[in-house]
Design brief:
- The protein is of the alpha/beta class.
- The protein is globular, with a radius of gyration of 21 Å.
- It starts with 5 loop residues before the first strand and ends with a helix.
- The structure holds pyridoxal-5'-phosphate.
- The site of pyridoxal-5'-phosphate has 12 residues, from helix 3.
Length: about 375
C-alpha cells in the first residue's frame, strides 16, 4: 500500500512502508512474544536514546501525546506542590490548562509566541515563590517551530532544586540531547513524532529516583504514571489495561529503522537538511518565515501567508494535496501563516520536489 501524499505535518507523519507493514499481525498482551520481546526492548532502547546515564527508566502510556503529558503532570506533583509552566505557544499553554483541570496550583510565565522565554523573569519567579516544586517547559514549541533554550531554563530550575518536566514531544529522536546531562526528571514524547511510528501511545523517560516517589499521587486511575510504570516493571513489560499492540509493534520497527539510519545524529542531519532546503526554496519563491533563523528548529517551520488578496489557505492546501503534499495550517494567534513540517519519512529530494509544487500551487488564479 502506497500513500497518496507525503504528510509534512508534525505527527502523525509519513512513515515507512515497513513500519506500516509491521501492524499486519495480531499480538497477545499476555505473551512474552509481545511483552518481553517488544515492550521491554522498546523501553530499554528509549532510555538509551535519551541518555547515557543509568538511573533513568521508561514508561509507555496509551493515548495521544497529551495523555502522556497529563499523566505526568497529574502523577508527579504532590498536594503540597506547585507547578511553574513556561509558556510560549499552544503546548506550553496546554500544560497550564492540564494543571488547572486537575486543580494543581500553577504559575504560568507566558511570553508571546514569537519570543523565547525570558530567563530573568523565570529566575525572579523561582526566587520569590518558594512553594514551586516543579518546572515544565516545551523543547520544540510546535506552534511556531521554535526551539526553546531548555539547557538554560533547566539549569536555572536545578539551581533552585526544582523537579523538571520536559515536553520533548516533537523533538525527541530528531534532535540529539542527553536528558541526564541536562538534568531533566521527566521527559515526555510520543510514538508518532521523530521516532516515526504511528499514533496510539506516548512515553515518559523518568529519573528512577523521582518516579519512585510518585506512588499514590495520581489524580486519575487510567493516567496513573507511577502505577503504569510499576506494573511494567514487575510484570516485564505488561501494560495495566489494553495496550495498542499494533502501534507498539510498528514502533519497535521504527526504532530499528532509526538505528539503521545511524541514530539520532544522522536523523537530525536529514531533518536539518530538509528544513534548510525548505527555507531556502520558499524564500526564493518570495515567502517569509515567521521566526528569525536563530530560533528555527529542524522540525517544523512557519511561513507568512502570501499577501495577495485572493490567497486562501484552503485552496492552497488542496492544490498542494492534489500534487502530493499535505501541509499544516498556522496556529499563531496574531499572524496569518501556515506551517510545513520536515520530519518523518521525508528526504531532501522530497522537499526539492515540494518547492516546485508550491510554485505551481501559488499561481492558481493565473
Ligand atoms: C504533538 C505535540 C504534543 C501532543 O499532541 P497530541 O495531539 O496529544 O499527540 C504535545 N506537545 C508538543 C510540543 C507536540 O508537538
Amino acid at each position: 500500500m502506497k500513500n497518496d501524499y507525503i504528510l509534512l505535518t508534525p505527527g502523525p507523519l509519513s512513515t515507512s512502508t515497513t513500519v506500516r507493514e509491521a501492524m499486519l499481525k495480531d499480538w497477545c498482551t499476555w505473551d512474552d512474544d509481545y511483552n518481553k520481546d517488544i515492550v521491554e526492548v522498546i523501553r530499554e532502547k528509549l532510555v538509551k536514546i535519551a541518555t547515557a546515564a543509568s538511573d533513568y527508566t521508561c514508561v509507555l502510556m496509551q493515548g495521544s501525546g497529551t495523555a502522556a503529558v497529563e499523566a505526568t503532570i497529574g502523577s508527579v506533583i504532590s498536594n503540597q506542590g506547585k507547578l511553574l509552566v513556561i509558556d510560549n505557544g499552544v503546548y506550553g499553554a496546554r500544560m497550564a490548562q492540564i494543571a488547572q483541570c486537575l486543580n494543581i496550583p500553577c504559575h504560568v510565565i507566558s511570553s508571546a509566541e514569537m519570543v523565547p522565554p525570558n530567563l530573568e523573569q523565570i529566575e525572579d519567579v523561582l526566587k520569590n515563590d518558594t512553594t514551586i516544586s516543579h518546572v515544565a517547559i516545551v523543547h520544540c514549541e510546535t506552534t511556531t517551530g521554535m526551539l526553546n533554550p531548555i539547557a538554560d531554563v533547566i539549569s536555572l530550575a536545578k539551581r533552585f532544586n526544582k523537579v523538571v518536566i520536559l515536553d520533548a514531544m516533537s523533538s525527541f529522536g530528531g534532535i540529539p540531547m542527553d536528558i541526564g546531562e541536562l538534568g531533566v526528571d521527566f521527559m515526555i514524547s510520543s510514538a508518532n513524532k521523530c521516532i516515526q511510528g504511528v499514533p496510539g501511545f506516548g512515553f515518559v523517560i523518568a529519573k528512577r529516583s523521582q518516579i519512585e516517589k510518585c506512588q499514590g499521587l495520581a489524580r486519575s486511575l487510567s493516567l496513573d504514571l507511577y502505577d503504569q510504570w510499576h506494573h511494567m516493571e514487575i510484570n516485564q513489560g505488561k501494560w495495566r489495561f489494553t495496550s495498542p499492540t499494533h502501534t507498539v509493534r510498528a514502533f519497535y520497527q521504527a526504532l530499528i529503522e532509526l538505528e539503521q539510519e545511524g541514530g539520532v545524529t544522522e536523523r537530525h542531519q536529514r531533518y536539518q537538511c530538509n528544513q534548510q532546503n525548505l527555507v531556502a526554496g520558499m524564500r526564493e519563491l518570495g515567502f517569509e518565515t515567521l521566526l528569525d533563523d536563530s530560533l528555527h528548529s529542524p522540525i517544523i517551520t512557519s511561513f507568512y501567508s502570501p499577501s495577495h488578496h485572493d490567497y486562501q489557505f484552503k485552496i492552497f492546501y488542496q492544490r498542494l494535496k492534489d500534487l502530493g503534499f499535505v501541509i499544516y495550517p498556522g496556529k499563531v494567534s496574531h499572524s496569518d501563516c501556515f506551517r510545513i513540517g520536515t520530519i518523518g519519512e521525508v528526504y531532501p529530494d522530497d522537499i526539492k520536489r515540494l518547492i516546485t509544487v508550491v510554485k505551481t500551487a501559488m499561481y492558481w488564479n493565473v
